[in-house]
């Protein structure tokens, strides 16, 4: 198979599957954006210059909601995690900087991007240009659509 770039897969699909929010955006607005569009699979956080700074995972959003609604009752969370969730008011308070390494690079291969998704167990990863700006995202739906469009031979 020819070398396939992560950015090429994103361009073929064209469906918005993530939302970009600014670090200082209130969580009330972040959750409203996420809730208002059922195709959204991830929340990517950027700084005031538009540089990618991290990811808010769906799991973190669910933990935050659970803590707000039920006080985290019945959940095993570390003390640090509890404090992080209790005091989260802005997007930057929930973002996961440790997931920065799962990003796909514009000129990176599709294989490298998929390896990162599998290694970290994430549903969606951002694809960044050389300057760290998000140019798209990569989901399994986009990969499968690209496979269909290009008629790549998976199994022969």
What would you note in describing this structure?
- With 156 residues, the chain is an alpha/beta fold.
- The chain has a single domain (6-150), classed as CBS-domain.
- Helix content is 42%, strand content 18%.
- The protein has 7 helices and 6 strands; from the N terminus they run αβαββαααβαββα.
- The protein has helices at 6-13, 27-36, 58-70, 79-86, 91-94, 110-120, 140-150; strands at residues 18-22, 42-46, 52-56, 104-105, 124-128, 134-139.
- Helix 1 crosses helix 7 (140-150).
- The longest helix has 13 residues, at 58-70.
- The radius of gyration is 17 Å and the shape is globular.
- It starts with 5 loop residues before the first helix and ends in a 6-residue tail after the last helix.
Fraction in helix: 40-55%
Please give the CATH class: Alpha Beta
Structural class label: alpha/beta
CATH topology: CBS-domain
Q: Please identify which CATH superfamily we are dealing with.
A: CBS-domain
Number of strands: 6
Point out poorly predicted stretches.
Answer: none
Mind telling me the C-alpha Rg?
A: 17 Å
CATH architecture identity: Roll
Shape assignment: globular
The number of domains is 1
Order of strands, main sheet, comes to: 1-2-3
Order of helices and strands: HEHEEHHHEHEEH
The largest β sheet comes out as: 3 strands, mixed
The overall pLDDT, averaged over residues, is 77
Question: Count the helices. How many?
Answer: 7
Q: Beta-strand percentage?
A: 15-25%
Q: CA-to-CA gap between the ends?
A: 12 Å
